[in-house]
Automatic annotation (TrEMBL), chain A:
<protein>
    <submittedName>
        <fullName>Thiamine transport system substrate-binding protein</fullName>
    </submittedName>
</protein>
<dbReference type="InterPro" id="IPR005948">
    <property type="entry name" value="ThiB-like"/>
</dbReference>
<dbReference type="InterPro" id="IPR006059">
    <property type="entry name" value="SBP"/>
</dbReference>
<dbReference type="Pfam" id="PF13416">
    <property type="entry name" value="SBP_bac_8"/>
</dbReference>
<feature type="signal peptide">
    <location>
        <begin position="1"/>
        <end position="28"/>
    </location>
</feature>
<keyword id="KW-0732">Signal</keyword>
Length: 359, 538
């Protein structure tokens, strides 16, 4: 049995250890060592083992990865810690949050010197990120359809956003909420691009959502909830054959030996998310940080992106893995809302959306 | 002094400072205090609805948990039957399951066409309530059970001999002695529920907002720190009001005789039938989502089998993970042990101090305030604390923002109130005369502490360590915020797996949840085994 004295002594030791560890930790803090760069990113960041080691081999600089939540949280954390940055390089700011990051001044001016004319479609407008952000990958958020369900039911599959409000698709559609899920937000933006802004009653996106709600759309809190609980696809248990997910989801449903994907993406319903990398303002190793941005854009990383993050590389010189293009489709004319408009409109849109969709 | 100093410093540095800094960010504009946000935010009808719903759901869930938890505590801690130790460990199981997994399990049962789909509960307030009770009923069972176990049953027997019926005995003899433990448990449940986040969003289908979900949205999506700060202050007001209420209710402490548990338990008899019936019903309710989870984890693309469990040795379909799930489990265990040690050391020191009854009213009030301060981390948004970490712990000597020590510290912060609330009712119930007689007989103060306080507290300390361990193991909110990508914990890995398409990853997420729960139960059962014969002297 311990006496009170030993337990207090233990507490003292613990605190001392904590302080000692903390002083060690400060040695590894962002920027303190020129030989280590901290790459801050979102939770979905992933590269094959050894890819980042390649950067160390080329430059002698180690990379430490710090995940900071989803894309929105990532940007907000950078904004809050502007005076004492969390890292040297950021990856994962997307076109829905780019303007906030740029306007708040969390990024240093640098876009990869290796960008070519081929990547121009992905570049942000001048003054809104062109100078600070380098495109790295992109992916479409689209309505996914369960082919098997529609074949069995003998109903034609919908193809457009307008189809989704028709009576034959009543109670068949499930979406993750726009205010707590990033694919949910992307789908809301697709409808805003498709139907335009306007007061309720004149055919704008608000009216479309009212019709969706009247047609029995189910709103779930998150993507996993919508996809795994309510969607009827092969790895799900639900009874709704239409769900908002990624254009890259169908390849995952292909079982070994199958030649056709049991689900597909409706390519006329897509919103394109492009993810960017940039140098964090205030880094003490600007040269190294710029090299890391170049490296993320290099074919070493770009070739690895499809298999590790399930999105398309932007670098025109990158090669897609074999078989990838058989099932992973890409929308020819995705819906677009400019990053500036998103930044200006987002808060009001989400508030209006919540009033319509989750009364 | 040191006894109060260490816990105060801990909570001060790792909780109060980050929260105040974060709230300050929203309330100070260009260096000047701007309280205009309060009138703005509080004038919105939405805000009042959020506050009402937060209090309503937490209060209702606390009441339901107490009503269901008491009979179960009686059965598991006062009746003698085979397997009760195992059942005590099993009760904790829901507590460690990741919210996102339980959300999926509940929704699978409740959705149209699900096993319980005919109840039409999907997306309703009742569904949220079910899940809150599922997660928290163990808090009541264990907190109250630990006190109940050592209560001398001769007082009840005396009352019965004197002609009191069972109802009267319960209300006049048993209940008053359990009251401090019940209040403790209910306040913990209230705090957990008022800050519940995933459950409210997932089961309410985004339709129900609480202060907590709103702070999350305002901070992580809208970056509206002003409104978030106002709501954080409102959250603090609600929590402090609750703690004051609870302190008042606990105020009248009754000294009680404690006995060896072996003397207090009895074999089940007819009078225990209602309690046993409630226990069985709740057991079915707790088991349903868990069984459906286990079944689904055994379901693979090629039919039934252990495929999902075998896959845990790898890194998921198309390398979804940085480390295999087993490695993440190892990380989790290691970090949870560290967190448990921190929470126990600090919780025990704090409990010993709080259990004193100084004669000066000022000191007594100070102690009550100290007691409340330790509870606050449960009632304040993890988002506020987490973002607060980022803007405060960035300079020496607390340059910890990217340090691995923050993970066990954050987990310990959540476990600390449970440790204090498990140990304190027992310590506070020690008859002061025991200490006095020991002192009169010539024991120096440290010996009184050792032979009286610590001897009695050994059993609840073991119970608290099991509980703290479970909480640390299952903690997700703060851990996901702080853990390093190369050293993820199991709940973090599960969250990642369930966020990716493909049957393999989903199956692995479920299998990993089952493993997490099984490991926790095994460890708690082991700790329970250690709890023998520590009370002999009394």
């Amino acid at each position: 049995m311990h006496t009170r004295n030993t337990s207090l002594a233990a507490a003292g030791v613990l605190l001392a250890v904590g302080l000692a560890v903390s002083s060690c930790a400060s040695d590894a803090a962002p920027g303190a060592s020129p030989e280590t760069l901290v790459l801050v990113t979102h939770d979905s960041f992933n590269l094959s083992k050894g890819t980042l080691a390649e950067f160390t081999k080329q430059t002698g600089i180690e990379v430490e990865v710090q995940a900071l939540g989803d894309a929105g949280e990532l940007v907000n954390k950078l904004v809050l810690t502007k005076d004492s940055p969390l890292g040297d390089v950021v990856f994962g700011i997307d076109n829905t949050f780019a303007t906030r990051a740029v306007d708040e001044g969390v990024l240093a001016d640098y876009a990869s010197k290796d960008l070519t004319a081929a990547e121009e479609p992905y570049l942000l407008p001048a003054g809104s990120g062109l100078e600070q952000l380098t495109p790295i990958d992109n992916g479409d958020v689209c309505v996914n359809v369960d082919h098997e369900w529609f074949a069995e039911a003998g109903i034609d599959e919908p193809t457009t956003l307008d189809d989704l409000v028709k009576p034959e698709y009543k109670d068949l559609f499930v979406v993750p909420a726009a205010n707590s899920s990033s694919p949910g937000l992307a789908f809301l933006l697709a409808t805003i691009a498709a139907f335009g802004e306007g007061a309720p009653g004149d055919g704008g996106w608000q009216d479309y959502w009212t019709k969706l709600v009247d047609n029995g759309v189910k709103i779930d809190a998150g993507w996993s909830d919508a996809y795994y609980v309510d969607f009827s696809g092969p790895s799900s248990e639900g009874d709704r054959p239409l769900v908002v997910s990624y254009a890259s989801s169908p390849p995952f449903e292909v079982q070994e030996g199958d030649t056709e994907a049991p689900t597909g993406a409706l390519l006329d319903t897509c919103f394109r998310q492009t993810e960017y990398a940039g140098v964090v303002a205030g880094t003490e190793n600007t040269a190294g940080a710029e090299k890391l941005v170049d490296f993320l854009f290099s074919t070493t990383v770009q070739n690895d992106i499809p298999e590790s993050m399930y999105v398309f590389p932007v670098n025109a010189a990158a090669t897609l893995p074999e078989g990838w293009s058989d099932y992973a489709e890409i929308a020819e004319n995705p819906f677009v809302v400019s990053p500036d408009d998103i930044d200006k409109g987002r808060d009001a849109w989400l508030t209006e959306w919540a009033a319509i969709a989750t009364p | 002094m040191l006894g109060a100093g260490v816990p105060l410093a801990f909570v001060g540095v790792f909780f109060a400072w980050p929260v105040l800094a974060m709230v300050g960010r929203g309330l100070f504009v260009d260096g000047a205090l701007d309280l205009g946000g309060f009138s703005d935010v509080l004038a919105r009808p939405r805000t009042l609805r959020l506050i009402g719903l937060t209090i309503g759901q937490a209060a209702l869930a606390s009441v339901v948990c107490v009503l269901l938890g008491l009979p179960i505590a009686h059965v598991l801690y006062r009746l003698r039957f085979r397997g009760r130790r195992m059942l005590r460990a099993l009760v904790v199981l829901p507590f460690v399951l990741p919210t996102v997994v339980v959300g999926v399990a509940f929704r699978t049962l409740l959705r149209d066409g699900g096993l319980l789909g005919s109840l039409r509960l999907d997306g309703t307030f009742a569904a949220i309530m079910l899940a809150l009770v599922f997660f928290n009923v163990a808090v009541v069972v264990r907190t109250v059970g630990n006190t109940w176990e050592g209560l001398d049953s001769r007082q009840e027997e005396a009352a019965r001999v004197l002609g009191a019926g069972p109802v009267r005995v319960w209300f006049t003899v048993t209940l008053p002695r359990l009251a401090p433990a019940i209040t403790s448990a209910a306040s913990i449940v209230f705090l957990f529920c008022s800050t519940a986040f995933g459950v409210v969003l997932v089961l309410g289908g985004s339709r129900f907002g609480t202060i907590e979900t709103e702070i999350y949205l305002l901070t992580t999506q809208f970056l509206d720190l002003r409104a978030a700060s106002v709501l954080s202050v409102m959250q603090l007001v609600v929590v402090v009001a609750l703690l004051l209420l609870a302190a008042r209710a606990r105020g009248r402490r009754t000294a009680q005789r404690r006995v060896d548990a072996a003397d207090a338990v009895h074999s089940p008899r007819l009078g225990d039938a209602p309690a046993i019936a409630v226990t069985l019903l709740v057991a079915v309710f707790l088991a349903l989502p868990i069984v459906s989870l286990v079944l689904r984890s055994l379901h693979t693309a090629d039919g039934w089998g252990l495929g999902n469990y075998i896959a845990l040795g790898g890194t998921g379909s198309r390398n979804a993970l940085v480390v295999p799930v087993w490695v993440a489990l190892g990380n989790s265990l290691q970090i949870a042990v560290q967190a448990t040690v921190i929470a126990l050391v600090i919780g025990l020191a704090a409990s010993l101090v709080i259990s004193r009854r100084p004669r000066s009213p000022g000191l007594r009030r100070a102690l009550a305030g100290f007691d409340g301060a330790l509870m606050l981390p449960l009632g304040v948004s993890a988002v506020t604390v987490g973002f607060g970490f980022l803007i405060t712990l960035n300079q020496p000597p607390f340059d910890l923002r990217s340090s691995p020590v923050l993970v066990p510290i954050a987990q310990a912060l959540v476990a600390l109130p449970l440790v204090v609330r498990t140990i304190l009712p027992v310590l506070a119930g020690i008859d002061g005369r025991l200490r006095e007689s020991a002192a009169v007989l010539g024991s120096p103060p440290w010996r009184v502490m050792r032979d009286v306080d610590l001897a009695i507290v050994a059993r609840p300390v073991l119970a608290a360590s099991g509980f703290a361990f479970a909480v640390a193991l299952g903690e997700f909110g703060a851990t996901s915020f702080l853990s390093r990508p190369d050293r993820p914990t199991l709940p973090v890995v599960i969250f990642r797996l369930i966020g990716l398409p493909g049957g393999d990853n989903f199956g692995m997420a479920l299998a990993a949840s089952v493993v997490l729960a099984a490991v926790t139960v095994a460890i708690i059962a082991l700790v329970e085994r250690l709890r023998v014969g520590t009370m002999g002297a009394f």
